[in-house]
């Protein structure tokens, strides 16, 4: 076993890696031929594998135990790799004020994500999640942008809504929310932010102070809209005295 003193990365020859992963050298060669593993580092005729390869092998073993085929695993890994992006880019924009709010990200192993959405983690759903920016790949882990969105998606799937339908709705909601955000930003830019800059106030702090007002408006309007829709679906008349959400 060789060790890079600079980064303290453990490296293994093929036989050592296979032993660590609990598989045969023949199986390891097969996985490499199927491109389930990234290429090893070459030093002359010697191939060196590291802990990233070991983690990948353990992920493959865990997914196989959960009923995934090697072909399916290859598609899942390809979907993640094609959607690889810098996690810092996913979680925040360069130069944004530290006071601006951010969602709480969640780090998961691929097999943990497969368990979280049992039977729903398909290459198509992964591709959609990556496209929406919900997921990113960081080394051997998957990073979900938002704990809240992850939990809501999980609950909806548990209630019988297919994950593909949840993601489709998320894309539609994203479009409406972007339009709502533009409305509030335009309002603030026209009536608040210019004066705040003249007073020497931090723009990020001003937005953070006013953001809960926008959230309250959206929450109230959404609640009334849901009430109207549900009453229409159930054929119920509006409650007396509730003129605010007719």
UniProtKB/TrEMBL annotation:
InterPro entries noted in UniProt: DNA-bd_dom_put_sf, MerR-type_HTH_dom, MerR_fam
Residue ranges annotated for the HTH merR-type domain, each copy included: 11-79
PROSITE patterns linked: HTH_MERR_2
Keywords in alphabetical order: DNA-binding
Listed SUPFAM superfamilies: Putative DNA-binding domain (SSF46955)
Pfam families tied to this protein: MerR_1
One Gene Ontology term of the molecular function aspect: DNA binding
The protein's name in its UniProt record: MerR family transcriptional regulator
Organism: Streptomyces rapamycinicus (strain ATCC 29253 / DSM 41530 / NRRL 5491 / AYB-994) (Streptomyces hygroscopicus (strain ATCC 29253))
Taxonomic classification: Bacteria, Bacillati, Actinomycetota, Actinomycetes, Kitasatosporales
């Amino acid at each position: 076993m060789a060790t890079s003193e600079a980064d303290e990365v453990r490296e293994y020859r093929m036989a050592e890696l296979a032993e660590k992963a609990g598989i045969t050298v023949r199986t390891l060669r097969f996985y490499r031929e199927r491109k389930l593993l990234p290429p090893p580092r070459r030093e002359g005729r010697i191939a060196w594998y590291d802990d990233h390869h070991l983690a990948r092998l353990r992920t493959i073993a865990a997914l196989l135990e959960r009923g995934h085929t090697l072909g399916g695993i290859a598609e899942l890994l390809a979907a993640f790799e094609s959607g690889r992006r810098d996690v810092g880019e996913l979680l925040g924009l360069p130069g944004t004020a530290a006071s601006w709010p951010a969602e709480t990200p969640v780090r998961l192993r691929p097999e943990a994500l497969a368990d979280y959405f049992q039977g729903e983690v398909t290459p198509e759903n992964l591709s959609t999640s990556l496209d929406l920016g919900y997921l990113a790949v960081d080394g051997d882990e998957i990073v979900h942008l938002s704990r809240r969105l992850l939990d809501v998606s999980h609950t909806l799937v548990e209630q019988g809504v297919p994950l593909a339908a949840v993601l489709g709705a998320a894309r539609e909601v994203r479009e409406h929310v972007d339009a709502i955000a533009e409305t509030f930003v335009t309002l603030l830019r026209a009536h608040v932010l210019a004066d705040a800059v003249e007073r020497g106030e931090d723009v990020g702090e001003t937005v953070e102070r006013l953001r809960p007002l926008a959230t309250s408006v959206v929450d109230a309007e959404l609640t009334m809209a849901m009430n109207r829709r549900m009453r229409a679906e159930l054929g119920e008349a509006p409650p007396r005295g509730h003129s605010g959400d007719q």
